Amino acid sequence: AQNSTLRQHLQLHLRRFPHRCGDCGLRFQRPHRLLLHRAHHSGEFPYKCPQCGRSFLLRRLLDVHLLGHAGRQPLRCEGCGAAFATAA
Fold first, then answer.
1. Would the pTM count as exceeding 0.70?
2. Contacts by 23-32 with C-beta closer than 8 Å and gap 24+?
3. Do the Cβ atoms of 19 and 34 come closer than 8 Å?
4. Are 55 and 49 in contact (CB under 8 A)?
5. CB atoms within 10 A of CB 72
6. Residue ranges of domains in the chain, CATH in brackets
7. Count of other CB atoms within 10 angstroms of residue 54
8. Which CA distances in Å does 86 have to 8, 17, 34, 45, 52?
9. What pLDDT is stored for residue 65 in this prediction?
């Protein structure tokens, strides 16, 4: 598994993105990233906020959104600003 992970990482440096979206042509290094992207074309956002009805592609994003309804701020990565509902 470690060799596979290293090979995938090296593809970033070589700018090899073999997984192509059939709708828009955008390319991805990993197949799961393509699957996440395709949800934008299909409109399938399975995680719906029970309070306001807004939908999200990832559960993590819904969790961060729910913090706002509770009057709390998400935790933020100091390096890139990504938001998280929990530290775990």
1. no
2. none
3. yes
4. yes
5. 11
6. 2-42 (3.30.160.60), 47-84 (3.30.160.60)
7. 12
8. 28, 31, 26, 22, 21
9. 94
**The residue type at 88:** A
- Distance between CA atoms of residues 66 and 61, nearest Å: 9
Smallest CA-to-CA distance from 84 within 68, 66, 60 is with: 60
Give the type of residue at 49.
Answer: C
- Token representation of residue 41: 């074309």
The per-residue pLDDT for 62 is 94
| Predicted confidence pLDDT, tens digits, the chain (88 residues) | 556 667 766 666 666 778 899 999 998 888 888 988 998 899 888 999 999 999 998 898 899 999 999 999 888 888 888 888 887 7
